[in-house]
């Protein structure tokens, strides 16, 4: 059987999406590609965003391959599954315009949270809930009712799985990248000066915390590490092809017993790194280790400058605000870019926030303005406000967000006049 894995050319006009708009490695498709081949089936990967391809150009490639299955994600890269565009405009258009007899399969956060609505909106045949790395190839040989997370539509109606696909990270071997145009990818995620060639990798998946705002519950939830040697093999292959910067897309880099070994090995390689983490995982000794591993970009989720605010967000932070400040300042003395991110909470007084920001900025730490919290379907916050996601979950979350923050202000890195989902999904 043949699987075509297509990362569409993403666009975000009118969207509340506030992730990076540059191309990123579609790791969910790269891992699925290897799992499909390991199952002795054929795979074709097309990254239309990286190669700037339109649907007509991708159709020409698909016609030569003649796939049995066409796979399209509903968010750009695993990195942004937790903060995806709420609307399905882009995959909607790509499923509609890519020809052929192939079974159409949607993967991603929308398929995970609202499979029925995803099947209906995309007019696709299958929506896979959870992580698709290992479940995608099973569609070729296993009864769909036995596949974790498999939801499908046929002549008898919709069949919705209550389970989620969860990948065994120890079984994910090292990506070869011989199916990917590494040399065309120059973006260095979360680096704001200089030049080079960047890439994205993951060492671990999931997170042991359950912060109320974090959209990881219905995919990439349980914390799991990969084998260090497999990850280092990927690093070596990328270095050999000219990559000099790697951004770790882990939900929470720094957890786990093997991360220090990874950092020690990286310290001997000609590579710089960036990552997202929480500062209470580190101390002066481990921050020195991180700096020795050539870290040049460190993004830290602080969320609130008060204990009450962090408790409200269920952060389970282990240290005080004073200690947070100390560690951020210590980090900046060793790492070129250190960023602290804040979320709007009722417990943070604007004057106190401003004083905290100014103190850190005085020491070179970049601190975000407090950003509004989008209630992504599947987050604990969404559950608290609305209950379990239903077919209108994304529209409901979008309406809540725009109505709540239109006057208070949206994030400064997103569309300031977002368009309703219903309109976005009908414009193609």
Report what the structure shows.
This protein is α/β, with parallel strands linked by helices and 428 residues long. It has two domains: 2-159, Cobalamin-binding domain (Rossmann fold), CATH 3.40.50; 169-399, Alpha-Beta Horseshoe (pyruvate-formate lyase- activating enzyme), CATH 3.80.30.20. The protein is 31% helix and 16% strand. The protein is built from 15 helices and 15 strands. The strands form three sheets. The protein has a seven-stranded mixed β-sheet with strand order 2-1-3-4-5-6-7, sandwiched between helices. Strands 8-11-12-13-14-15 form a six-stranded parallel β-sheet. Helix 8 (259-266) packs across helix 9 (284-292). The longest helix has 13 residues, at 228-240. The chain is globular and about 60 Å long. It starts with a strand and ends with a helix. The relative contact order is 0.12.
Concise synopsis of the structure shown:
By secondary structure, the chain is an alpha/beta fold.
> What is the makeup of the main sheet?
7 strands, mixed
Low-confidence stretches: none
Task: State mean pLDDT (0 to 100 scale).
Answer: 94
- The N- to C-terminal Cα distance equals 31 Å
CATH superfamily (homologous) name of the largest domain: tm_1862 like domain
**What structural class is derived from the secondary structure elements?**
alpha/beta
Strand order in space, largest sheet:
2-1-3-4-5-6-7
Q: From the alpha-carbon coordinates, what is the Rg to the nearest angstrom?
A: 21 Å
Helicity range of the residues? Answer: 25-40%
Give the number of helices. 15
CATH fold name of the largest domain: pyruvate-formate lyase- activating enzyme
Give the ordered list of helices and strands: EHEHHEHEHHEEEEEEHEHEHEHHEHEHHH
CATH architecture of the largest domain: Alpha-Beta Horseshoe
Q: For this structure, what is the CATH class of the largest domain?
A: Alpha Beta
Quickly count the domains: 2
Overall geometry comes to globular
Strand content: 15-25%
């Amino acid at each position: 059987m043949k699987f075509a894995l297509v990362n569409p050319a993403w666009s975000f006009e009118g969207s509340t999406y506030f992730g990076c708009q540059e191309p990123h490695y579609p790791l969910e498709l790269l891992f699925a590609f290897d799992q499909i081949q390991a199952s002795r089936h054929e795979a074709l990967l097309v990254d239309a965003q990286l190669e700037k391809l339109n649907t007509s150009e991708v159709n020409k490639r698909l016609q030569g391959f003649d796939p049995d299955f066409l796979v399209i994600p509903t968010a750009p890269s695993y990195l942004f599954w937790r903060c995806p565009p709420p609307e399905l405009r882009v995959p909607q258009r790509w499923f509609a315009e890519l020809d052929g007899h192939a079974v159409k399969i949607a993967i991603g956060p929308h398929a995970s949270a609202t499979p029925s609505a995803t099947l209906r909106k995309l007019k696709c045949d299958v929506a896979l809930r959870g992580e698709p790395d290992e479940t995608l190839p099973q569609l070729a040989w296993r009864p769909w009712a036995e596949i974790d997370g498999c939801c499908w539509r046929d002549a008898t109606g919709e069949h919705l799985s209550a389970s989620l696909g969860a990948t065994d990270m120890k079984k994910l071997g090292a990506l070869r990248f011989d199916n990917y145009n590494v040399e065309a990818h120059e973006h260095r995620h979360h680096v704001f000066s200089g030049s080079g060639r960047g890439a994205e990798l993951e060492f671990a998946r999931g997170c042991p915390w359950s912060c109320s705002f974090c959209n990881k519950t219905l995919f990439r939830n349980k914390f799991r590490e990969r084998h260090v040697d497999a990850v280092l093999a990927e690093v070596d292959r990328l270095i050999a092809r000219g990559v000099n910067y790697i951004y770790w897309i882990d939900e929470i880099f720094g957890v786990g017993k093997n991360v220090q070994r990874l950092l020690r090995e990286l310290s001997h390689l000609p590579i710089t790194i960036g990552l997202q983490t929480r500062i209470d995982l580190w101390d002066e000794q481990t921050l020195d280790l991180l700096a020795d591993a050539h870290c040049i970009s460190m993004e830290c989720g602080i969320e609130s400058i008060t204990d009450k605010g962090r408790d409200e967000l269920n952060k389970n932070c282990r240290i005080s605000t004073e200690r947070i400040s100390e560690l951020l300042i210590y980090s900046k003395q060793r790492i070129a870019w250190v960023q602290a991110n804040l979320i709007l909470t009722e417990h943070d007084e604007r004057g106190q926030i401003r004083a905290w920001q100014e103190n850190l900025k005085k020491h070179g730490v970049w601190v975000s303005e407090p950003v509004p919290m989008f209630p992504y379907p599947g987050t604990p916050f969404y559950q608290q406000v609305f209950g379990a996601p239903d077919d209108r979950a994304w529209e409901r979350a979008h309406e809540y967000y725009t109505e709540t923050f239109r006057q208070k202000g949206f994030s400064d890195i997103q569309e300031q006049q977002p368009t309703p989902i219903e309109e976005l999904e009908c414009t193609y």
